[in-house]
Amino acid sequence: MKIATFNINGIKARLPRLLEWLEEAAPDVVCLQEIKSSDETFPRLEFETRDWHVETHGQKGFNGVALLARAPIREVLRGLPGDPEDHQARYIEADIGGVRVASIYAPNGNPAPGPKFDYKLAWLDRLITHARGLLALERPVVLAGDYNIIPTPQDCHDPDSWKDDALFRPESRAKWRTLIYQGWTDAIRQCHPVGDCFTFWDYQRGAWQRDDGIRIDHLLLSPQAADCLRAAEVDRLVRGREKASDHAPVWVRLALHDSKSGASGGKN
DNA sequence: ATGGTCGGCTTCCGA
Predict the structure, then answer these.
(1) Which residue intervals of chain A are DSSP H helices?
(2) Is there a catalytic annotation at residue A181?
(3) How many CA atoms lie within 13 A of A102 on its CB side?
(4) What is the per-residue pLDDT for A257?
């Protein structure tokens, strides 16, 4: 099973590029972030007519996440638990072919310090709490998305320039480490212990041309999913195309070995 | 020191 995450930065502007990448990359599951669309205006027919199952958790103009899958999508959870007052659409989770999959769009948090940074840290605390419960299921789980965290200096071209940024602040990286110490496997680093593996290049200042990137899109695997990990890659060439998102797709391939890996369904 | 680029929505905000 090939599971991908892709911050598309607007479904309306990215639809042709997304459809093109779906054809060539042939993932089984796609976690989308920043659809910047409500559920009502998301072009779900464009996907359903191409044999994708679609579930969205949208918001007009900003944020918004979605799941695309070849197999049926069941037991959908919309919104990150833990704060009934938080109405930002940043989390959707579901059962797909025996795997619990989440599409995550963590807050950016700039400027730091400030209320946006406080919201980011509180949101990550809620993610940490929810993730602990998912580990307790002892099932294959994949938490995929834009975490807006640069985990280590190795994960950016110029650490000095990110020193005071919410994506690289010690508080943000500490939240990341809390997740890792819970028992999640960072799939890209598992398969690529050294090297850049950037997933985002700013539109400004010729960041792509200078390869001034950062690694902020991650797939975290539960132990039961990590046991099945066969490959993890960044489709970085997608970033260099016309009308590209500022993020590249990232994916893992899992060799699921039990009967629950089939698409035949049923509750898990 | 500053400006630079996108997307969505509306004359600006978020990234």
Answers:
(1) 11-25, 44-48, 115-136, 170-182, 187-191, 223-226
(2) no
(3) 27
(4) 80
CA of residue A221 to C1' of nucleotide B4, angstroms: 37
The half-sphere exposure of A204 on its side-chain side, counting CA atoms within 13 A, is 0
Q: With a 7 Å cutoff on the CB, does A110 touch strand B?
A: yes
CA of A42 to C1' of B2 (A): 38
Which residues of chain A have a pLDDT value below 70? 258-268
Which bases of chain B come closer than 7 Å to a protein CB? 3-9, 14-15
A68 neighbors A97 (Cβ within 8 angstroms): no
- pLDDT, tens only, A122-137: 999 999 999 999 999 9
- Residue A164's CB: how many other CB atoms inside 10 A? 12
Tokens of residue A225, six digits: 């999913």
The answer to whether some atom of strand B lies closer than 7 Å to the beta carbon of A203 is yes
Cα(A241)–Cα(A253) distance, rounded to whole angstroms? 24
Q: How far is the CA of A268 from the C1' of B6 (A)?
A: 41
A205 touches strand B (CB under 7 A): yes
Question: How do residues A6-37 score in pLDDT, each as one tens digit?
Answer: 999 999 999 999 999 999 999 999 999 999 99
User: Does residue A105 have an active-site annotation?
Assistant: yes
Provide the residue count of chain A: 268
Q: How far apart are CA A156 and CA A201, in angstroms?
A: 10
Identify the CATH number of the domain defined by range A2-254: 3.60.10.10
